[in-house]
Design goal:
- By secondary structure, the protein is mainly β.
- It has 5 helices and 32 strands.
- The strands form 4 sheets. It has a 22-stranded antiparallel barrel.
- Strand 8 and strand 9 form a beta hairpin.
- The longest helix has 13 residues.
- The protein starts with a helix and ends with a strand.
- 44% of the residues are buried.
- The site of copper (II) ion has 6 residues, from strand 15.
Length: 659
């Protein structure tokens, strides 16, 4: 194994998909970016009005841990969120919930995003230290001087299973020197019903989201921009958890300055300062069966700077990014009998933990010829942690340092080749990550999946990833086939292990686990995608994915997706479209009882939808009707927290107006 590691590390002349964009002149640079953004709409094959989660789930290398109907936790390359960086336009944001009820993706809405940029492994290191890769949520950004000054869209819809009603609106003004845009949305859903037509209690939610952006052109080649997103979720049930969310609020703001250069190596420099604050209030008062109640509020505040430069000369192009942020994470635990004023216990589950990060990242690429490209990149970051109430950490780790500095280097390399109808790529990467706040400093964080209380360890070593990836594809006028594979060897893999000391604090919990490092863990991800145009207006698509994760004893890692598939047919005729898909997982044979998993059976889901396009005056209108899980199958997947059943048959209708 050591030998393989060395080989991966030193044999780096090679990466997978590059992110190269050809910018010929400075003027069309912004146009290029706009076109790229416009290509990927926030909708899936089956559904035009999707949530951010539903959109993300249409990507091959994303799976989800679901704790209910709201705020699914995205897993990239079958790795939990600690191992990936999730950002909004490069801005770092950290959820305020110790139970992961609020991934960053829960603070945006589909109508304030233009696209989601997913990078696998170390290719995602531009936004900071990572193991699994990066998910960057790109906000809408209207260019200056569009021919059509006013643009807007309105979407509404109803989903019958959980009586979800949603209204989303957005509008943008594009002047020669001034741009203004805004969006507003509201979703409200009741409890959903599973495939046995039983109500899944505590699965309701309400979400309000609004955003605003203003840009002003200061000179021909420079502009300033301010943005804000406000998100409010209320009365959100998490059926798989012993607690619900009464209120969460997020304010995400930024101000940026962009300078273009007509001559020289540097083409654009874009610098942004940002601030975001998240409040999260969860409690179990909605669960009357509990005799003793607990409130677990959390707060996460981040200040940051991100500055990015694009360089280009002849066959060389480069992106350089400086990332700096300061985050303070606080979480409290307050226990009381039925009467809130008679508090019996107080503790910090995140004892005021500060994380400061500063890092410089670079991605370089060279066009070796018309057909081949070489890329080489890396980053170096410094991570600093400080635990204010370190006495909570000392209970399990006496004398642990209050402050800790870590250096987080990363390197990656890749090679791509296109010959006629074929494309190939190979790549490798190496990178460190620091433990998350929970892994390093968490105190009695109850995990309802394996029913243990988790304790952080401030002395954990950096997790170190060695990675290799490859892809091959073929494409002609009617047929396409693409295969991808990646392999991670992760040293000092952080995971919870049963501690012999300490007694559980939460009455449901069976013991205490401490975060420790395994010598190593390995992860393999594979996918095959195929497409075929059967007729001019009849298209077929299919996907197969497989993953395998093992610890250093050959045991299974938790939350690894079993063999899964999706196949879909899409038919268009004039203004009419109809699509149908079948997707499912095979039986999860490689589950991990040690981490609370049991065997999950195979399932398959059949979906169908139809849409119709028309114009009223100048307003483009689309209406859609469809059904998910048409056969009302009762199922839960390998990543459904506590095996909660998924939604049964769901009929959905939606309407979209574009003007
Ligand atoms: Cu929470």
């Amino acid at each position: 194994m050591r030998y393989l590691k060395m080989l991966l590390f030193f044999g780096m002349s090679v990466t997978a998909q590059n992110t190269h964009v050809h910018h010929d002149t400075i003027k069309n640079l912004e146009e290029v970016q706009v076109k790229n953004a416009a290509k990927k709409k926030i909708e899936t094959e089956m559904k035009m009005a999707v949530s951010v989660d539903e959109f993300l789930s249409s990507s091959d290398n994303i799976s989800f841990i679901k704790r209910g109907a709201y705020a699914w936790e995205p897993l990239l390359n079958n790795m939990s969120t600690e191992r990936s960086t999730v950002t909004i336009d490069g801005m770092h944001i950290f959820g305020a919930c110790t139970d992961k009820m609020d991934p960053v993706t829960s603070y945006v809405e589909s109508n304030n995003l233009s696209t989601i940029d997913i990078k696998s492994g170390q290719q995602g290191s531009l936004h900071g230290a990572t193991v699994a890769g990066s998910i960057d949520l790109k906000r809408k950004s209207t260019p200056f001087g569009l021919e059509k000054k006013w643009n807007g869209a309105y979407q509404s819809g109803f989903e019958f299973n959980n009586k979800q009603f949603f209204n989303l609106g957005n509008v943008a003004y594009s002047g020669e020197k001034f741009v203004a845009e805004g969006s507003i949305s509201y979703r409200k859903a009741g409890d959903y019903y599973d495939g046995n037509n039983d109500k899944v209690k505590h699965s309701q939610y309400k979400k309000f989201n609004t955003s605003m952006g203003f840009a002003y052109k200061t000179t021909d080649l420079s502009s300033v921009r301010v943005d804000a997103i406000f998100d409010l979720a209320k009365d959100v049930g998490y059926p798989a958890l012993p607690m619900d969310l009464s209120l969460s609020r997020a304010l995400i703001t930024s101000a940026s300055y962009k300078q273009l250069f007509e001559e020289g190596l540097v083409k654009v420099v874009d610098t942004k300062v940002y601030f975001n604050a998240i409040e999260h209030y969860m409690d179990d008062t909605t669960r009357p069966e509990n005799l003793v109640h607990m409130d677990m509020p959390g707060w996460s505040t981040t200040y940051g700077l991100v500055s990015k430069a694009n360089l280009k000369k002849n066959r060389y192009s480069s992106e350089i990014q400086l990332n700096a942020y300061d985050n303070l994470s606080i979480a409290e635990m307050r226990m009381y009998p039925q009467d809130r004023s008679k508090r019996t216990m107080f503790a910090y589950s995140w004892p005021w933990v500060t994380t400061r990060y500063g890092g410089l990242s670079m991605n370089n690429s060279w066009d070796l010829s018309e057909k081949s490209q070489l890329s080489l990149g890396g980053s170096l970051g410094v991570n600093y942690n400080y635990s204010k109430y370190v006495e909570f950490n000392w209970i399990f780790h006496p004398g642990a340092p209050q402050e800790k500095i870590r250096f987080l280097p990363s390197l990656h390399a890749g090679y791509t080749l296109d010959i006629d109808h074929f494309n190939f790529s190979v790549g490798t990467g190496y990178g460190h990550r620091a433990p998350s706040v929970s892994e390093g400093y968490g105190y009695y964080i109850y995990n309802s999946f394996d029913r243990y209380d988790y304790i952080g360890n401030p002395d954990l070593k950096n997790e170190i990833s060695y990675e290799a990836n490859a892809s091959a594809g073929f494409k002609n006028e009617r047929f396409s086939l693409q295969g991808k594979i990646n392999y991670f060897y992760i040293e000092n893999y952080i995971i919870g292990r049963v501690l012999s000391m300490g007694s559980p604090m939460n009455y449901q919990s069976v013991g205490v686990k401490g975060y420790t490092s395994l010598d190593y863990a390995t992860l393999l991800n594979m996918s095959i995608n195929a497409g075929y145009d059967i007729l001019e207006h009849l298209h077929w698509k299919g996907t197969l994915t497989y993953a395998r994760g093992m610890d250093d004893q050959g045991g299974n890692l938790p939350f690894i997706r079993p063999l899964s598939y999706q196949t879909s047919l899409h038919f268009m005729h004039k203004n009419f479209g109809i699509q149908t898909s079948v997707n499912g997982d095979f039986e999860q044979i490689n589950y991990s009882p040690e981490y609370g998993e049991d065997l999950t059976s195979a399932y398959k889901i059949w979906n169908i939808s139809a849409d119709y396009n028309f114009k009223i005056n100048k307003v483009r209108t689309v209406v859609q009707v469809g059904a998910e899980n048409l056969l009302n199958e009762y199922y839960s997947t390998y990543a459904d927290w506590g095996n909660i059943p998924r939604m049964g048959r769901n009929i959905f209708t939606s309407l979209k107006l574009n003007f």
